[in-house]
């Protein structure tokens, strides 16, 4: 699981390049095997979770439990090493402010019928690329034009797909420093998701 193969390298390189040319700062594509997804679910099942703050200072509704920071052990460690190595590719250097180091790992669990998470932008400190991996459930990860949730667009994050969202530092020619409004809604059958981020405050 999470072996480095020429196929995986090609895929990552292709989709990072594509993302850099898109105006919308997000892309998703099939990536993981069923074994990798079920292995990551097993990893998540060993974690302990706490309830997220229901309403943040900036007025964002949060209805999920979270394990943060999630431990870099077992298959999660393999997964992170996999991505860090693939993003080191010579052809990708030009797109990042520096090498990607996933030092911020969050696992989020939403119960069936949860209100999800309201429209927000991830912190400015999360540089270059944010990876979202949905492992199970049925829910909608959406992006929006502004904080009022206008022009919502649902991103396909069906388990097995990888979502890449650009953050400050990513060399997106269209907009250097923009952060995307997004959220999670319609959590019909729960949601288990992993967010891998590079927190620029840690290094
Ligand atoms: O559940 C997710 O996949 C991530 C939700 C989100 O946008 C966040 O926690 O910042
Ligand atoms: Fe977010």
Task: Describe this structure as you would to a colleague.
The protein contains 3 helices and 12 strands; from the N terminus they run αβαβββαββββββββ. The chain is an alpha+beta fold and 203 residues long. It has a single domain (6-197), classed as q2cbj1_9rhob like domain (Jelly Rolls), CATH 2.60.120.620. A 7-stranded antiparallel beta sheet has the order 1-10-7-12-5-4-2, with helices on one face. Strands 3-6-11-8-9 form a 5-stranded antiparallel beta sheet, with no helix packed on it. It is globular and about 45 Å long. The chain starts with 5 loop residues before the first helix and ends in a 6-residue tail after the last strand. Bound molecules: 2-oxoglutaric acid and fe (ii) ion (FE2). Residues 108, 117, 122, 132, 141, 182, 184, 193, 195 line the site of 2-oxoglutaric acid.
């Amino acid at each position: 699981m999470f072996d480095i193969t020429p196929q995986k390298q090609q895929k990552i390189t292709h989709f990072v390049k594509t993302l850099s040319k898109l105006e919308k700062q997000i892309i998703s594509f099939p990536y993981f095997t069923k074994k990798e997804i079920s292995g990551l679910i097993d990893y998540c099942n060993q974690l302990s979770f706490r309830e997220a703050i229901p309403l943040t200072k900036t007025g964002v509704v949060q209805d999920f439990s979270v394990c943060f920071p999630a431990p870099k052990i077992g298959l999660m460690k393999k997964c992170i090493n996999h991505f860090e190595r693939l993003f080191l590719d010579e052809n990708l250097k030009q797109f990042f402010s520096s090498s990607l180091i996933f030092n911020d790992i969050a696992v989020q669990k939403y119960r069936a019928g949860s209100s999800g998470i309201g429209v927000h932008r991830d912190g400015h400190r999360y540089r270059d690329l944010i990876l979202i991996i949905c492992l199970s459930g049925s829910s909608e990860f959406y992006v929006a034009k502004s904080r009022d949730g206008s022009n919502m667009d649902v991103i396909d994050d069906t388990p097995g797909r990888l979502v890449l969202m650009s953050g400050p530092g990513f060399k997106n020619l269209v907009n250097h420093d923009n952060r995307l409004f997004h959220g999670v809604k319609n959590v019909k059958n729960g949601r288990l998701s992993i967010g891998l981020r590079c927190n620029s405050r840690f290094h």
